[in-house]
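Researcher: I need the complex structure. Ligand is magnesium ion. Inputs:
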Amino acid sequence: MSKLKYFLALNRAIREEMSRDENVVLIGEDVGESGGIFSQTRGLYNEFGELRVRDTPIAEGGFVTMAVGAAATGLRPVIEIGFGDFVTACMDGLVNQAAKLRYMLGGQVKVPLVLYTFSGGGLAAGPQHSQCLESWFAHIPGLKVISPSTPMDLLGLFKTAIRDDDPVICFLGKQLVGTSGDVPQDTKDYLIPLGKADVKIEGKDITIVTFSQMTPIVMKVAESLKSNNGINAEVIDLRSISPLDIETVIKSVSKTGSLCVVQESQSPCSVASEVISKVVEYDSKILFKNPLRITPPFTPSPFSPNLENIYRPSQVSIESKILKLFQ
Amino acid sequence: MSKLKYFLALNRAIREEMSRDENVVLIGEDVGESGGIFSQTRGLYNEFGELRVRDTPIAEGGFVTMAVGAAATGLRPVIEIGFGDFVTACMDGLVNQAAKLRYMLGGQVKVPLVLYTFSGGGLAAGPQHSQCLESWFAHIPGLKVISPSTPMDLLGLFKTAIRDDDPVICFLGKQLVGTSGDVPQDTKDYLIPLGKADVKIEGKDITIVTFSQMTPIVMKVAESLKSNNGINAEVIDLRSISPLDIETVIKSVSKTGSLCVVQESQSPCSVASEVISKVVEYDSKILFKNPLRITPPFTPSPFSPNLENIYRPSQVSIESKILKLFQ
Amino acid sequence: MTKIDSTLAKTLLEKLWEVRLFEENTSRLYKEGVLPGFVHLSLGQEACAVGACQALQESDFITSTHRGHGHCIAKGADLNRMMSELYGKETGYSKGRGGSMHIADVNAGILGANGIVGQSTTLAIGAALSFQTKKLDNVVLAFFGEGASGSGAVHEAMNIAGIWKLPVIFFCESNKYAELSPFDVHVPIKNISDRSKGYGFKGITIDGNNLVDVYSNVLEAVKLARNGNGPTLIEAKTNRWHGHYEGDPQKYKPSSELDEKNWDDPIIKFQDFIKKEKIISETEIDKIKEIVDKKIIEAIKFAEQSKNPSAEILLEDVYASDF
Amino acid sequence: MTKIDSTLAKTLLEKLWEVRLFEENTSRLYKEGVLPGFVHLSLGQEACAVGACQALQESDFITSTHRGHGHCIAKGADLNRMMSELYGKETGYSKGRGGSMHIADVNAGILGANGIVGQSTTLAIGAALSFQTKKLDNVVLAFFGEGASGSGAVHEAMNIAGIWKLPVIFFCESNKYAELSPFDVHVPIKNISDRSKGYGFKGITIDGNNLVDVYSNVLEAVKLARNGNGPTLIEAKTNRWHGHYEGDPQKYKPSSELDEKNWDDPIIKFQDFIKKEKIISETEIDKIKEIVDKKIIEAIKFAEQSKNPSAEILLEDVYASDF
Ligand SMILES: Cc1ncc(C[n+]2csc(CCOP(=O)(O)OP(=O)(O)O)c2C)c(N)n1
Ligand SMILES: Cc1ncc(C[n+]2csc(CCOP(=O)(O)OP(=O)(O)O)c2C)c(N)n1
Ligand SMILES: [Mg+2]
Ligand SMILES: [Mg+2]
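Model: Output:
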């Protein structure tokens, strides 16, 4: 094992896969010579050249659908959309093209592309630069959605995503960019399958399901609940949003009898709604308490740090809501 | 009461509101002189003139954001997007502009616009012309979402939406276009408040929640369950998706102990997920059976009528799934 | 002017008739209630499809629109599988899952018709990107309409293609109407081709009903693109004889345009040219039509005898790998 | 050439300094860690903001971008409330909910800065639509960057504005960079203004560092728009002195561009002009800067003394009516 930063895990995943397969290309705004706004793509332009690493104009709709056309004709594009909020500009390419092309054309093509974007709050970036929109894509057949919380998961899932023959959308956590974590020494063929959740902490009293930037916070909550309140929470990091590893969640809830989903995204029609629905559809009797969603209030994400701190689920707010369940 | 067709209810709602308030304008592709592809806007161009009824070029992204700018400066635009699938082209205008402008600008503006679109399948229109995407918008604070199933509801909700000071997205049922229904004689001020579900049929054995084109089908299911199986289903037509009238659903489930949501949209992260989650969060003990979602399989909407008939929930398929709950 | 020899003339004429008769029969079958869904026909625009595709090689690609039958036929799609797809049958190109708006034959270089206006151009630059990146000398031709020219997608595609000098031809079938509304609702200038200057490449407006004009101009654009000199925008002025969709009452058209006598027929135009230049004989001309007639009847029979797609086909091909 | 009298010159110079000193102080405060989030400064581009807005009336509107401080100041926003917004305080224009990228003062005709590149133009045509529909003779000016010009939104806005002859001015601050990449990554031609022909209206490229040029060209465009003659596209070539955002290491710029000595200073340019034409005296010039200096200090004090937004502010203004 060695230590690697989250954004460098992304960089390494792309580099290794570009070295392995010359059909992998990188496309996006400022991913080229400048190396990206978080330095996430640095070095790749020099290593792979201007044909395989392309700085685009500001035209997310255009270059995402372009990538679909490229994927259907033999390339394996990796596309960057800087902020998760800007997916609004490329929905057609993802939803009406990438997700449906294979089905619509009778299976004649595959669309192996990966789109990654930095999502979520915590940087006082304001209402148009802080959203979490992964739930939209989980609603769409034909797409796969991942959201890794650690450098290791990012590396393993991203490499799998690049090798996957379907379109995969990867929501990275903005606040995680600079965080460090263990990764294997040799990662060349380090792959984590899509659709497998990770039980971060085992416990018998409550199942807390979460993903992306909320994972490290929820882990602190679990530690605190244990040492301060004697509550043993089981923490599940979904990692994949679609496919969703509901088996792991159900197994856990069957043991704990209690379910809480913590996410930074809005609550209605979301991953949290889906997890809860799937569990009670399976068997509503395994719940001994009412399930709980911990999400931001139903407002846009505010700029001012003191408001953003109230808006986003925090260790304190999560803890106090969970403790109420145990009163 | 008099009879009116669904598409003419839309026409009348727009006409009456345009007569009442000169700030109401109609904008969209072919909404003008030609009167719209389903004749839904016929006569409006002649009555209100070229300044207030505008045929746009094919630029959904552009004219939706334009409408946001217009709404923020005093107009009350009604916008048509022909098929629900094309909202992919105007997500930024709806989600990053319309939904957030008021909040983001400190409450200095309001954004009174209504966007309507024809959604859903049943016309063998294929994968890019049959989707139901209302769940995406219910996920977004700042937007309101409605989906009426009858001419009366369409008329009353749409007029309310036009008078509402917030952006409202209205998903109309494509298959409902030519259906007829009662409307009040004088509809000038006939308003139905947003956020109120309609109990279409009362029953004590199961609560079936639905909306839009599924409503008439579910009503037939309920009739058949009653006469053939002695099962009394309570049918709730949500009408509003956001705000969502969960009180009415909870009241019903408290009585029936059993919940089924039928929708034409995809299942994951959807209105159905939301309804089920909200009910069990409120009190999972009120459910005596596991809740059930009846939705299409997780595939794009196919063209061929025989596949589309399998894809979409039908009276037969809904009935047999509900009957299983009672075995 | 490009030389048209007798072999080429026969091919071109055969293709023209294939498009014409395929569309006429589709119109009839739709009217008879045999075909489900929506169909958008390209009657009157045959010279665009045939002229443009003839200038391409088999390994070149096209992308197409909701009005794509002509393009697909011209690029070499199989009439049987096309017709079968319109019927929604299992032997159709999309196994019945796509219908008229989604016909593709990737082996023949048809990346598919597409139901979202404008996206033919963005998908096209994607295929062009593949070719450029892999250092292949293939080119891509994107069909789109004058209505589509108002969409941001088309602008973004042309801008990117201009910057990267992608091997792509933007072929605009400027057919006077987009759905129910005329040219000037969509375009504030006379010729859309004027926009190419804004992207740093060549643009030209031509008579889209003149097959030889279309063919020779696209040939030139293909040469530029194949040699690494980037895109061309070709605007072909043409006419959509039928409604936007079959069944469209076309109230928005002046009656003169509805009168067949006034139609500028690209096939007659080409046949007149052939006759004048004495490239092939009149009997040969007639024979071509007869042969095509049979092929279409064959295609209809094929479609009718094909099975409806089975329930498994509904669930297939959503993903290429595990989900 | 437009006549600049002493009153006008004083106003212009004051505005120039307001922008300059506001931005310099913002830069300093950001570096000191006082300001949260991201800020994008318009240092070097002051003549664009001031010249363009001076050509408008108070009841005319502007729309702005992520780099909007200068535009807002020039159109008459209150420095105190602006600075307070950058601090995230309750007295800010957005009550602390928007920040640097969302400053608006609708009473002053500022429909808001916007964080989504390109949408300043589509929001602008919306305001222009309001004016045209209500038969008011106001106009709207949309600021956008050369990077934004590649987006479909800008094309759709210009096309619609061209067709409907909306009273709008498209003002492109062509400042050589979009984020970290130079002009030619985004634009395949020399002058973006060439694109206006494709939309049927006038386009011109000007020196965006020359205040008088900017002012007089926008005046002319405003006259056209106000008289119902539709849009103009003005491309003002200028320079972004600082990074894309404060903190940007700017490794992508050649060192000559980073050297202040090489900066083409619009304020010095304008002051030289004033001096040469003897419009106002040097002491007056110096006094203006002093006055502005005080205003900015005032604004910072106002911001610092303002309260952080209370929790209720988080929940307010999501909807204008019941939800
Ligand atoms: C994004 C999008 N908007 C609207 C439509 C509906 N629509 C289908 S065809 C069409 C008109 C297209 O006009 P044009 O590009 O001129 O092509 P033509 O039909 O004349 O071949 C429209 C508006 C669509 N399919 N996609
Ligand atoms: C739709 C969208 N894509 C990308 C971004 C990220 N972004 C912010 S500013 C910017 C560059 C804009 O360049 P330009 O239009 O030239 O304006 P300038 O920054 O030079 O003022 C980019 C890409 C964004 N905010 N919105
Ligand atoms: Mg057309
Ligand atoms: Mg710039």
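Model: Summary of the prediction. Chain C has one domain: 6-305.
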